[in-house]
Design a protein that fits this description.
Mean pLDDT: 95
Radius of gyration: 17 Å
Low-confidence stretches: 231-236
Structural class: alpha/beta
CATH class: Alpha Beta
Shape: globular
Order of helices and strands: HEHEHEHEHEHEHEHEH
CATH topology: TIM Barrel
Largest sheet: 8 strands, parallel
Strand order of the largest sheet: 7-6-5-4-3-2-1-8
Strand content: 15-25%
CATH architecture: Alpha-Beta Barrel
Distance between the termini: 35 Å
Bound molecules: pyridoxal-5'-phosphate
Helix content: 25-40%
CATH superfamily: Alanine racemase
């Protein structure tokens, strides 16, 4: 086995074990390969393992890279999106994980209509209240969901969060749990199905799975250490 094959096997072993601990079916957890800063050749190698969904955090980088990658892949945007890039984001991505305002949802809906596309999104929630973070306050989610019911092309399918940076994955647990509980309350109050919970990265994906993650976003653990350092907050 190559190093990459070994890393992928290890991720799956840990994913299965985390599911087993809480009685979940491994098929209910999807792995997104976070390919920011990675070259098309590296992406091709990961795709050859059978990984189909890749996450990018910058529109410009994705625009340059996606045409050089295998055509059958699914691309998700996981970084903060500026409204002036909404149109391009709609052209490039099937799903956007970090939408943090009703205004951006409306802009995306218009862009999707013009492009003849449908778009799934998760609302990014700043559960920790850290000031350095993007994401909406938990209290803003209800009104945003109600506003989003009027949109035709954009569908809110769940919630996403990034917990505070920590060495100890257990420290992320309360934030993952809070996101799931918020999701449950929002479903009850609005009747809008919110099946997706996008939470957990290389560092803490097992805890996220135990707390209900349906999308884990794994970069370093799959591709190896990133060559360049990421800016603080990860999703800039
Ligand atoms: C970079 C990034 C990840 C992946 O981080 P790793 O620690 O490399 O797994 C996940 N989610 C977001 C939003 C990111 O920006």
């Amino acid at each position: 086995m190559t190093d990459l094959e070994n890393r992928w096997a290890e991720i799956n072993r840990r994913l299965d074990a985390a599911c087993a601990r809480v009685g979940r079916e491994p098929g209910t957890v999807q792995v997104m390969a976070v390919s920011k800063t990675r070259l098309p050749d590296e992406i091709r190698d990961v795709a050859a393992l059978g990984v189909e969904t890749f996450g990018e955090n910058k529109v410009q980088e994705a625009r340059a890279k996606i045409p050089l990658c295998p055509g059958r892949l699914h691309w998700h945007l996981i970084g903060h999106l500026q409204s002036n890039k909404a149109r391009e984001a709609v052209q490039l991505f099937e799903m956007i994980h970090a939408v943090d305002s009703l205004r951006l949802l409306e802009i995306l809906d218009r862009a999707a209509g013009e492009e003849g596309r449908q778009l799934s999104v998760c609302l990014e929630v700043n559960v920790s209240g850290e000031r350095s973070k993007f994401g909406m306050a938990p209290e803003a989610v209800l009104e945003t969901l109600r506003g989003a019911e009027r949109l035709f092309k954009v569908k809110v399918v769940g919630l996403m969060t990034i917990p505070p940076v920590s060495e100890d994955p257990e420290e992320a647990r309360p934030f993952f749990r809070a996101l799931r509980e918020l999701r449950d309350r929002m479903q009850d109050q609005t009747g809008i199905p919110l099946p997706e919970l996008s939470m957990g990265m290389s560092q803490d994906f097992e805890v996220a799975i135990e707390e209900g993650a349906t999308w884990i976003r794994v970069g370093t653990l799959l591709f190896g250490p990133r060559p360049r350092k990421e800016p603080h907050g990860l999703d800039s």
